[in-house]
Amino acid sequence: MTRILLTGMAGQLGSELQQTLAPLGEVMGVDRHRLDLTQPDKIRQVIGKCKPDLIVNAAAYTAVDKAETETELANAINGTAPTIMAEAAQQLGAALIHVSTDYIFDGKKNTPYTEDDTPDPINAYGQSKLWGEEGVLKHCDRALILRTAWVYGAQGKGNFVKTMLRLGAERDQLRVVVDQVGTPTWTGDLGGAIAQLAQSLQSDTLTGIYHFTNSGVTSWYDFAVAIFEEALQIGFPLQVKQVVPITTAEYPTPAARPAYSVLSSQKISAVLGNHPPHWRTGLRRMLKQLYDQKH
Question: What's the whole-model pTM score?
Answer without folding.
Answer: 0.96
